[in-house]
Design brief:
Length: about 450
């Protein structure tokens, strides 16, 4: 593959990477690059205000090539705005020997030719034009291996002059997560009260649902502390570890509760069928893999050689899990439809069927909004309003939890399970009409 198509394909893949890039968890990056021949390495994406700064510290620099003596002027760290990335892709497709360092669309920060004799450098660069930028390292020497230790810091100055290490569109996240944490605490309190008030109607699934609320609240608390410490210090101070733990437990519990509720376990039947057990045995290990992929994506960055692969792994696993949890609900709907035609309690079964149909629509709506709409908002929203997509996702989750918990609350006279004689007769008439039409 020639250098022209290779560079063009690199920028196209980076464009996709930037559009899919999740929220960063640490804005002070320290990494070691060893014998790396990649012509382009992306470090981080950051939203700058007019008080933004980039600090780059490079040490233990060395490079070697089997073809010729490398030119230090063709190694450079540079910033590229989101708008200029498209122009750079077109430029790379038009020039056979394209090197991004020479483009007027990039802002070169630190070239190897300016590094002192100690093979190290520590520079700070102010950002004069606000915007969303990506930090890259370019190696325009063909077949050249680069080794170096790199430390990068990106931050804005707030109104008091203190450093804010969260991008301009994410600095509101600590307050956002704290607000939703308090909302779920109130939600959990209401759920505990409802279970206590209706002790005779409480089933095992309701305790599991309460555990889900607790894990979701703790997940948000850790996310708030994580973002707070990143905002103030640039690092998470260990809160990221707790965040991943509770995120994993919450994810497993959420999919498990949806599967169990969708099969009617506990409050409709005390056991699971073999195929439903298989769904759980598939979903839970996949959730483990999804959380590992999420941790790799969040704790490293696009500078990792396999970062894009981990992104794809996470997306594929998430899609598989979302599809898998829908099957038990569909099975329950089909089973209830068949039972309604033969069981004497026709109205009761039709009511259950109505319940599961509504639940199916709620689950599909939740998955569609959080997986597609939120991703679209993250892509189209201006860099200063990236927090809006996160707020939309959390609002959708809270609404889904509220609807699901309301539909399956532990009450003595649930509208879906209590029927009178008139409803029974009406249901029988519906069934007779359906049989007549068939």
């Amino acid at each position: 593959m020639g250098r022209k198509p290779r560079m063009a394909s690199l920028f196209l893949s980076l464009l996709l990477s930037i559009s899919l890039m999740p929220l960063a968890f640490c804005e002070i990056k320290t990494l070691k690059i060893v014998s790396d021949s990649r012509p382009l390495i992306m470090f981080e994406r950051f939203g700058f205000t007019n008080t933004g700064h980039v600090n780059i510290s490079v040490s233990s620099v060395s490079f070697s090539s089997s073809l010729s003596s490398p030119d230090p002027d063709l190694f450079s760290f540079f910033l590229l705005s989101q708008e200029s990335l498209y122009h750079l892709i077109i430029e790379s497709q038009q020039s056979p020997q394209f090197c991004p360092i020479t483009s007027h669309y990039v802002l070169n920060l630190l070239k190897f030719k300016s590094i002192d004799d100690n093979l190290s450098s520590n520079r700070s660069f102010p950002i004069h034009v606000p915007g969303e930028y990506s930090l890259f390292f370019a190696n325009c020497n063909p077949e050249t291996l680069v080794t170096m230790d790199v430390r990068t810091e990106m931050y804005n100055l707030d109104y008091s002059g203190a450093r804010d290490y969260l991008p301009a569109g994410q600095t509101q996240l600590p307050s956002l997560y704290l607000t939703f944490f308090l909302a779920y605490c109130v939600f959990l309190g209401v759920w505990i009260y409802a279970c206590y008030k209706n002790k005779l109607s409480v089933h095992r699934i309701h305790f599991l649902m309460g555990g889900l609320l607790l894990m979701k609240a703790l997940d948000l608390l850790c996310a708030e502390e994580d973002k707070h410490y990143v905002k103030v210090t640039g690092t998470a101070h260990g809160w990221d570890v707790l965040f991943y733990i509770f995120q994993f437990i919450k994810g497993v519990l959420l999919f498990t509760v949806i599967v169990l509720v969708g099969t009617g376990w506990s409050f409709l039947k005390p056991f699971l069928q073999e195929r439903e057990k298989k769904i759980l045995m598939i979903v839970i290990p996949l959730q483990v893999l999804a959380n590992i992929a999420s941790a790799v994506i969040g704790e490293t960055g696009p500078f990792l050689k396999d970062w894009m692969t981990w992104n794809q792994v996470f997306l594929v696993i998430d899609i598989i899990c979302c599809c898998a949890i829908i099957f038990p609900i569909v099975w329950s709907i089909r089973s209830l439809r068949e039972t309604s035609k033969t069981d004497g309690k026709a109205a009761r079964n039709l009511a259950k069927l109505t319940l599961f149909r509504k639940f199916y629509m709620v689950v599909v709506g939740y998955l569609y909004f959080t997986r597609i709409v939120v991703a679209a908002l993250r892509t189209i929203a201006a860099y200063r309003y990236q927090w809006v997509s996160e707020a939309a996702g959390e609002c959708a989750s809270l609404a889904f939890y509220a609807i699901m918990f309301y539909m399956f609350q532990p009450v003595e006279k649930n509208e879906y399970f209590v029927v009178d004689d008139e409803e029974e007769e009406a249901a029988q008439a519906i069934l007779r009409d359906e049989e007549f039409e068939l």
